[in-house]
Amino acid sequence: MKKITWLFLLLLNVQFSIAQTIAIDTDANNPEQSTTKKNKKGWVFSKMAVASANLLATKAGYQILQAGGNAVDAAVAAQLVLNLVEPQSSGIGGGAFLLYFDGRHIQAWDGRETAPAGAHEHMFVQQGQAMPFMEAVASGLSVGVPGTLRMLDQAHQKHGKLAWSKLMQPAIQLATRGFPVSERLNALLKNDAYLKNDSQSFQYFYQPNGGAWPVGHRLKNPDFVDTLQRIAKKRSAALHEGPIAQAIVKKIQTHPLQPGTMQLSDLKNYQAKLRQSLCFDYSAHQKIYRICGFPPPSSGLLTMGQIMGMLENKSIEWLTSETPLTWQPQALHAYIEASRLAYADRAMYMADPDFVQAPVGDWSSMISKKYLEERSALITDQRATQVNAGQPFFKKTNLASMIDQPEYGTSHLSIIDAKGHAVSMTTTIENGFGSRQMVSLGKKGGFLLNNELTDFSFLSHDAQGVPIANRVAAGKRPRSSMNPLLVFDVLPNGQTGALQMSLGSPGGAAIIHYTTQTLLAMLHGKLWAQDAINLPHLGVLSPNGPVFAERGMFSKTQSDVLEQKGHRWIEVDLSSGIQALQRTPLGWHGGADPRREGWVMGQ
Question: Is the peptide bond before 324 cis (omega within 30 degrees of 0)?
Fold first, then answer.
């Protein structure tokens, strides 16, 4: 696995003026050297830090902090650069969840996409059967009303420090000058079978002969510059109303194979939601931590809380003492069994809370100590078991399970500013390159639209005719696995103490496993973030399905033990993209996933 280093950008003038244009070096291969203190575990920062999925986005966020901005300001700038340099994963055509800690309170900003008013529960059904997944993805039907920009706008109006227009500058300059095509982007373009079908995407991402732009090619996006300049003047209204909104609707409604139903009113009426964050307490090494994240429509925090809650009181030795460090096979068995139970509940109950009632009126009932003790008793040391959803309602329910659909186009960033305020934000356009539809007011670039509606269940009822919780409905937000986290210690009086971590990851339904396993390694193994991120991943994506294990990362001993216990073992590529910032005795330590292009900078 490639070695990750953490560097921060030295500014040309330490008295950098907020009024100046914020410039960014577009050479992703030649970062400036850092004077930040380094120890054997990596780079640590005493004042501030930014971790994102791409060096150029990290630079943009860090420069905003250096210019006097706060964590929310830096998140806006970093997201817009990610839209440009990592277009397959996130952007203003998609949605996001943002956790913000202002030193006293946590705010959960929900920018998840919504189904347009014309959506209905049979829209992905053809002749009584669920539509083929990729046929639905690469269509006008799959596009949800974008929420990322409106959410960032609302969060910035409440918490931002720098002028909104200044936050556009790094992305505007990069789009104007161009940025080097990375190995990852080049490989994804080569392997995508649908992007070329959209003429605007083809003209931007590919050479005239059909080949993907080579690694290092400087890719410019003048139409995205125009879009950003409009956003700088009119904020999110530039996307949700006027010419750009009209271009979005036209693109969706005139799709040549499967046109969608989105209207201008869907875009204009979209609002992000400020939700109550959801937290659970977890003990490790006689210390209690408070782990906070998103309630539904995200399933991330609830499913993580169930897995960790079921395992909390079991005597488990998590990690081996051998080199390289890895998981104990018996610990993996217990983890898999807890995951099966949690994913059964996830499939049965979790969906948009505006459409689905929480158990006994409160989602926290699903992570209550009493309920998880009952579920934990079903886990045995000997064999894998067949599982079903539990009854956190304590009565029968009419909700049914669904088959999970993958979501690959996702990213994460974590930020700590000079005041100790923090952002943990996971952002997505769902599948790689979303719906494969590029939008702008010209034909020289633009931004991609999401395919987020394929996160709904394609079928509205199960085989017994029972309604499925995550079925499509107009105005509904599809269930997500995104799991941005903020972790705190807990004071002796039970109050929330100091911020300890900010972390998250892309990875579809496997996001829950990536974040949970990283957190378990940090808490039980007392690992620093980078060492925890480097550990191999595995997990289940359905209650009674196979175990998916990261290819080439587990020993035969580990797989043999689990197969002997009845687990069906399948090795696959698991491309997590975990970004984490962690409080240590030396300062803020940053970890970036070597499986992608993550980078950390700070001061």
Answer: yes
pLDDT (tens digit per residue) in 51-76? 999 999 999 999 999 999 999 999 99
The reply to whether 254 belongs to the active site is no
State mean pLDDT over 101-107: 96
Q: What percent of the chain has pLDDT over 70?
A: 90
Contact yes or no for 240/269 (Cβ under 8 A):
no
Q: Say what angle helices 300-311 and 329-349 make with each other, to 10 degrees.
A: 140
The Cα–Cα gap between 297 and 476 comes to 9
The dihedral built from the CA positions of residue 547, 553, 559 and 562, taken in this order, carries a sign that is negative
Catalytic residue among 410, 428, 454, 516: 410
Task: Check the CA dihedral 436-437-440-444 and report its sign.
Answer: positive
Adjacent-strand bridge partners of 284: 287
What pTM, to 2 d.p., does this model score? 0.92
Helix pair 71-85, 148-159: axis angle to 10 deg: 160
pLDDT at 547 over 70: yes
Spatial separation of the C-alpha atoms in residues 247 and 549, rounded to whole Å: 42
Question: Quick check: 528 and 584 in contact, CB under 8 A?
Answer: yes
> Which domains does the chain possess?
38-274+417-455 (no CATH), 275-405+481-602 (3.60.20.40)
Q: What's the CA gap between 379 and 229, in Å, rounded?
A: 56
Question: For residue 321, what pLDDT is reported?
Answer: 82
Token match 């394609």: residue? Answer: 458
Show contacts of 388-396: CB within 8 Å, 24+ apart. 388/344, 388/543, 389/344, 389/345, 389/347, 389/348, 389/349, 389/543, 390/341, 390/344, 390/345, 392/345, 392/349, 392/359, 392/360, 392/365, 392/366, 392/368, 393/359, 393/360, 393/365, 394/360
Of 78, 37, 24, residue with least CA distance to 424: 78
